[in-house]
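stage 2 :: seqdesign
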């Protein structure tokens, strides 16, 4: 990896030297179906780049990561590949004012999800290809200037195996020679170009609005076609286009709109204009909850928002990644709530997306939303909870601060002024100042250019009659920010519901702000700061409100208010201010009454984390037993066939720990046990089998039997995960070797193996690997692709060895490796911080014992 990095300074220097007029990329992918291993290792890539020298200097470099280069020709002059190519760059000099560079290379197919990924479907042997480039992997497929501000139009031509179809950003057709040729694109950045090729199942539709017609396509592997609900994908797509055309006043600019659901994908999705790619797990093989469909809709709309925020107008460098990702993340929930059936998507946002942001913003690696991105490794790690979820949260605050109309008018002007160009922070802020009349520089300084999360706590005094004499909001944090926030007052009604009876919005500034509008109100049972979730903060409670939640959280009738309270209690637990066992007690008391399925799933995840990491070791067994008993109790009383029943079934399986639990799981698998209404489909079967493997009640043969029922790519991943999860020293040694000592596994199987290896009930079994981890990670970082290295470094950190000794080992590694790659150090530092947080939470929980 060290030779593959690109610094911001190098990119700025190159952008000052040249501008690109266009690319012609010719790929020959017929080797993808070769019979020998060598035949499917590489493909031929011929790239012609036309560019002009616009600055001082006569030399630069072109990016290319490839096993070999056949020829390099600059302005008719042959360059010796052995001299100019170093494995990641081609040095070129003697530049003229106008230049034509031709590079003929052998590029490698990928098994890591980076560049040209090649996948063989185990179900039918078919081969599928797709590309994934962000932030800088187009250079694995063709020679280029790999930085976002050197935009250019592209023409792709692809020779593919007989019987295949090929897609790219532009519309394509096959000529008489069997070559697929694609229309020239608008000027776009390298990282959003795309090629998808193979015998994909392809469904078409169209979106029409006045004179505008957008051809729509959706595709997946043939073996998944029977599960593919393309109609719902198209429905969300059309609803999204309606919203964006209504509000952006800039027609979709990229012609067709294909959406490909592809295997072994590292991301949720990627916004390649005209050819969006998604992970195929969004095609559901079994029964899932509405939360899953809402999540998919959010991702579809997120990627569609990128057609404007990111593709039409692109950041100059990755420092301003928020200009696309924060906006897209915000728009996913915004459009979901206003244009689709998922009208409660802001509840999911408050409970789910913000949890990601709060965690990221309290890590030692937290950074401003507009980050300091020194190089590509920094950029790769900054696709994080700050850039996405905090950025989106801050934009929600901006809409409250500037006003919805001013915000959308600002977006409209931004697109028209900067179409097909590149921008920085100031370009957008100046337009928003025009439309809102607000001082965006001060707002930006507080919200975009500083890091950390504030805590807002109510401070209330009452008179002798129990009426509020003063309600103030106390703000804590290193940077005291301006918040536009609402404060809600709630009380228990005669029928036991906890309902809001008063609300006031206020500009919260400084350390203490009095909300004068609420003086004189009757004493509430609950004071909820940031009611309606207008701002980004951690909510705290006064003593009386916290007591109300412990006794009546499930009585809150408003789903958003209830979600905010769940999230606030979880933040108290993470911060070591509420014992983990108390959070578990509240969850077991009220999760069964939670109506929002997405919130319920988050509460389930939090309770498992509370027992695994934040409870004292002495209470873990008891906590696990309580979770399993509570899960089974709610499973038995859930409405038959409901999504709540399915959710509780999965929770019970994930927490099962007794012989009686395992016997029920075995009975559900072999049909001797039944729960009315519970459909044990194939995906649920794997979930039920998983704890049996972890606890030694399902051996390799039994796992193999399940694979024979589901001999698919998904089934294979489940099998690999379960095999690595068995409680055996030999199994763990084999899994470790497959991931750490070998690079033969694909990205998806690396992920599955790590997931199986790390089991909370097997702490002692995997303890010997803590020392091995710290000895191996620097070598891994140097030898593997950044995606695989990140997966291994994050996934195998010995966080389950939650002791001061492990903390000291992490500190010792950081001290001894100050010169290690900054991105690697960041990952270790983040994992170390999670471990330290867990130890603090355990100390809090111990006080409650």
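stage 2 :: out
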């Amino acid at each position: 990896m060290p030779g593959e990095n690109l610094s911001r300074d190098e990119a700025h220097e190159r952008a000052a030297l040249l501008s690109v007029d266009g690319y012609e990329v010719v790929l020959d992918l017929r080797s993808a179906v070769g019979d020998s291993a060598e035949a499917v290792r590489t493909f031929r890539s011929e790239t012609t780049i036309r560019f002009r020298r616009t600055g001082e200097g006569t030399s630069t470099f072109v990016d290319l990561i490839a096993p070999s280069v056949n020829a390099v020709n600059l302005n008719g002059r042959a360059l010796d590949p052995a001299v100019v190519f170093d494995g990641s760059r081609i040095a070129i000099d003697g530049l003229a004012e106008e230049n034509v560079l031709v590079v003929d290379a052998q590029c490698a197919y990928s098994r890591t999800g980076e560049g040209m990924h090649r996948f063989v479907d185990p179900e039918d042997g078919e081969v599928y290809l797709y590309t994934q480039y962000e932030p800088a992997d187009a250079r694995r497929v063709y020679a280029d200037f790999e930085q976002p501000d050197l935009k250019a139009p592209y023409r792709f031509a692809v020779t593919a195996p007989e019987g295949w179809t090929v897609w790219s950003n532009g519309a394509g057709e096959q000529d008489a020679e069997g070559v697929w040729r694609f229309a020239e694109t608008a000027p776009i950045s390298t990282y959003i170009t795309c090629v998808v090729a193979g015998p994909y199942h392809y469904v078409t539709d169209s979106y029409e609005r006045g004179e505008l017609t957008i051809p729509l396509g959706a595709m997946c592997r043939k073996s998944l076609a029977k599960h593919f609900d393309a109609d719902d994908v198209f429905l969300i797509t059309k609803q999204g286009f309606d919203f964006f055309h209504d509000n952006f006043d800039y027609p979709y600019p990229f012609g067709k709109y294909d959406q490909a659901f592809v295997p072994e994908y590292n991301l949720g999705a990627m916004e390649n204009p005209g050819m969006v790619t998604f992970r195929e797990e969004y095609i559901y093989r079994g029964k899932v909850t509405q939360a899953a469909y809402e999540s998919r809709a959010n991702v579809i709309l997120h990627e569609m928002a990128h057609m404007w925020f990111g593709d039409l107008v692109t950041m100059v460098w990755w420092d301003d990644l928020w200009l696309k990702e924060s906006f897209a993340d915000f728009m996913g929930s915004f459009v979901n709530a206003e244009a689709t059936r998922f009208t409660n998507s802001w509840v999911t946002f408050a409970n789910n997306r913000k949890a990601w942001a709060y965690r990221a913003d309290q890590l030692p690696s937290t950074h401003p939303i507009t980050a300091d991105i020194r190089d590509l490794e920094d950029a790769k790690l900054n696709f994080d909870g700050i850039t996405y979820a905090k950025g989106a949260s801050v934009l929600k605050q901006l809409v409250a601060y500037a006003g919805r109309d001013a915000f959308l008018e600002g977006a409209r002007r931004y697109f028209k002024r900067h179409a097909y160009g590149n921008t920085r922070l100031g370009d957008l802020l100046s337009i928003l100042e025009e439309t809102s009349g607000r001082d965006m520089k001060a707002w930006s300084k507080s919200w975009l250019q500083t890091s950390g999360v504030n805590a807002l706590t109510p401070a209330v005094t009452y008179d002798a009659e129990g009426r509020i004499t003063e309600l103030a909001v106390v703000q804590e944090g290193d940077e005291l920010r301006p918040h536009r926030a609402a404060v809600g007052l709630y009380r228990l009604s005669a029928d036991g519901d906890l309902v809001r009876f008063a609300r006031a919005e206020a500009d919260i500034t400084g350390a203490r702000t009095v909300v004068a509008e609420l003086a004189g109100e009757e004493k509430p049972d609950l004071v909820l700061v940031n009611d309606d979730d207008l701002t980004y903060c951690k909510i705290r409670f006064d003593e009386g409100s916290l007591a109300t939640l412990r006794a009546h959280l499930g009585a809150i009738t408003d789903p958003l208010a209830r979600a905010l309270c769940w999230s606030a209690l979880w933040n108290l637990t993470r911060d070591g201010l509420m014992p983990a066992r108390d959070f578990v007690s509240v969850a077991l008391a009220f999760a069964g009454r939670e109506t929002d399925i997405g919130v319920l799933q988050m509460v389930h995840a939090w309770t498992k984390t509370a027992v695994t990491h934040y409870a004292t070791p002495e209470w873990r067994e008891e906590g696990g037993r309580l979770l399993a008993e509570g899960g089974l109790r709610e499973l038995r009383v859930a409405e038959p066939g409901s999504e709540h029943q399915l959710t509780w079934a999965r929770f019970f399986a994930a927490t099962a720990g007794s012989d009686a639990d395992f016997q029920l799981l075995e009975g559900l698998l072999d049909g001797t046990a039944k729960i009315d209404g519970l459909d044990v489909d194939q995906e649920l079967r794997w979930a039920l089998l998983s704890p049996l493997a972890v606890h030694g009640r399902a051996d390799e043969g039994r796992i193999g039997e399940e694979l024979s029922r589901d001999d698919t790519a998904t089934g294979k991943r489940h099998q690999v995960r379960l095999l690595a999860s068995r409680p055996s020293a030999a199994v763990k040694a084999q899994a470790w070797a497959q991931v750490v000592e070998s690079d033969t596994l694909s990205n998806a199987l690396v992920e599955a193996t790590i997931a199986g290896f790390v089991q909370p009930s097997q702490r002692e079994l995997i303890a010997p690997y803590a020392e091995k981890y710290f000895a191996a990670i620097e070598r891994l970082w140097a030898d593997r692709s950044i995606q695989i290295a990140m997966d291994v470094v994050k996934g195998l950190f010995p966080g389950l060895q939650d002791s001061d000794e492990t903390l000291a080992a992490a500190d010792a590694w950081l001290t001894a490796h100050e010169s290690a790659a900054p991105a690697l150090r960041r990952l270790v530092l983040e994992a170390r911080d999670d471990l330290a947080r867990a130890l603090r939470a355990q100390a809090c929980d111990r006080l409650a014992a």
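stage 3 :: structure notes
- The longest helix spans residues 822-847.
- Residues 196 and 403 are 41 Å apart (CA to CA).
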